[in-house]
UniProtKB/TrEMBL annotation:
Belongs to the uricase family. GO terms for cellular component: peroxisome. 5-hydroxyisourate binds at residues 89-90, 191, 208, 257, 283. Keywords: Oxidoreductase, Peroxisome, Purine metabolism. Pathway: Purine metabolism; urate degradation; (S)-allantoin from urate: step 1/3. InterPro entries: Uricase. One of its GO terms (biological process) is purine nucleobase catabolic process. Its EC number is 1.7.3.3. This is Uricase. GO terms for molecular function: urate oxidase activity. O2 binds at residues 89, 283.
Length: 308
């Protein structure tokens, strides 16, 4: 699911105070001067492309999906039906493709910065631009430790994404992230001591399966001289380390909330360039199955999965 809506967004608020008494469902017509357009962003979603960089026999690829949103310095297209300032979404699509050709895609963050800079610097009537990009997780194939020169495998270990926002005469704001990262540990997790009332039926436990789909987003302060690839790799390592604990014994998690907090603290401690983090763990519950009616004893080998 992409974060933007390709259809134009148009929100109104009523400026003039007035009472309208309605005896039955009716349409209330207000003069244009009594309305304020709150959000006039529009844009293009799902711009999908594959960029191939060829260094002799060795090929490097970036497959991305981009979304671009603009806000103009007027709303004449809404209020008057005047399209003279509107940059077509087809132009946005073509621009993204052309920038990939001309600039390449070293990182998705730099590509998003290039997109924002183009629209801000090329069109004086564009007052705001936002670019969202996510990257398909392709990894180079290896045979006996030797990397293949032009073959890759899709490895769904989470989706890398970024978002860049920039206003006219302002500095770009860069965020990076990872989503759809599936994590699981089979013990060293519990949930006890929680608040109870007459509607609480959940039993306490000190030994459960901890499983989740993770979303993590972080923002930078200044985005100058940032190695986006290196930071993304460090954040990925922090997530895995904080979730699992030491490899020989793990680390007990008393709740999803504590695990989320541990992940965020480790990220902020190891990467000073990161200013703020957001982490969401979507629960995937595995409940014990009583097999006595089947004449079997369940020694915690079999659990029933329920995703929330």
């Amino acid at each position: 699911m992409t974060p933007f809506i390709e259809q134009q967004q148009l929100l109104f608020s009523v400026i003039q105070d007035s009472e309208v008494t309605m005896q039955r469902p009716a349409v209330c017509h207000l003069p244009n001067e009594d309305l304020e357009i709150l959000n006039s962003e529009y844009g293009k979603n799902m711009i999908k492309l594959l960029h191939i960089r060829r260094d002799g026999k060795k090929h490097c690829i970036k497959e991305v999906e981009a979304c671009v949103h603009l806000r103009l310095d007027s709303v004449n297209e809404y209020s008057q039906g005047d399209n003279s300032a509107v940059i077509p979404t087809d132009t946005m699509k073509n621009t993204v493709i052309a920038l990939a050709k001309c600039n390449g895609i070293e990182t998705i963050e730099q590509f998003a910065l290039d997109i924002c800079n183009h629209f801000i610097s090329s069109y004086c009537h564009v007052v705001y631009v936002k670019a969202y990009i996510q990257e398909a997780p392709w990894r180079r194939l290896e045979k006996d430790g030797v990397p293949h020169v032009h073959s890759f495998i899709f490895v769904p270990e989470g989706i890398r994404f970024c978002e860049v926002e920039q206003c006219q005469n302002g500095c770009p704001l860069v965020s990076s992230g990872i989503k759809d990262l599936k994590l699981k540990k089979t013990t060293q997790s519990g949930f006890e001591g929680f608040f109870r009332d007459k509607y609480t039926t959940l039993p306490e436990t000190t030994d459960r399966v901890l499983s989740a789909e993770l979303f993590c987003k972080w923002s930078y302060g200044k985005c100058q001289d940032i190695d986006f690839d290196w930071i993304w790799g460090i954040v990925h390592e922090c997530i895995l380390e904080a979730f699992s604990g030491p490899p020989e014994c793990g680390e007990y998690s008393p709740s999803y909330q504590k695990t989320v907090n541990n992940i965020q603290k480790l990220i902020l401690a190891r990467v000073p360039q990161i200013e703020e983090t957001e982490v969401i763990l979507n629960n995937v519950h595995y409940f014990f199955v009583d097999l006595k009616k089947l004449g079997l004893t369940n020694e915690k080998e079999v659990r029933r999965c329920i995703k929330h």
